[in-house]
Amino acid sequence: AEVDDIKLKDCTACYLVKYCSIKCQKEHRPKHKKECKKRAAEIRDELLFKQPESSDLGDCPICCLPHPIDRNLSILNECCGKLICVGCDYANLKRELEGNLQPKCLFCRQPMKKNVEERERNTRMMKRVEANDPVALCQMGGRRHKEGDYAGAFEYWSKATRLGDVAAQFNLSCLYREGKGVDKDEKKEIHHLEKAAIGGHPAARYNLGVHDLNKGRMDRAVKHYIIAA
What we know:
The protein is mainly alpha-helical. 56% of the residues lie in helices and 4% in strands. Strand 1 and strand 2 form a beta hairpin. The longest helix has 27 residues, at 22-48.
């Protein structure tokens, strides 16, 4: 009866077999290793080559429609860090003009100032960074990168990725490819590219296609290009 009460645990890599204990898993590992790696790679590819529901920009929080791939068709509100599509922004602007209303952020409803000083912009940014806003962390990483502080960029982007920011995953892949702030590491570059591609980042998907093409894996490259398109 005591044996029957043991809860079996899946192999977390392939999910093909179950084990009653860590000892059992270690003893079976030599026999299972080859099949496990094969199935784990298949599971990874199933996830990697699945068509994302939207781009890495996600959905507009107002109309709930996917943001266009063209980043110029979305507007980032500095007050709350929310990305609003130009359609919603235009509709709100029209409503405010026709009603002679004070301009406010469409999401957080904070008053919008026409001329915001750089100091105030930085203050708003730091408040969002301190609140662990992944978008703000990614933006701050971009600032550090532009200033040539690649170690600082790596720190901010790494934190943003842990909070789920897809763009930061792509940015980290660029650091590992160029060896800025970190040692060049193709394996880590591909790791972050895959994470970003799964999240719907089109440039990351394209770069994976180029990488596979250079390695002679034409079938995989074509799959990446089709999804990126």
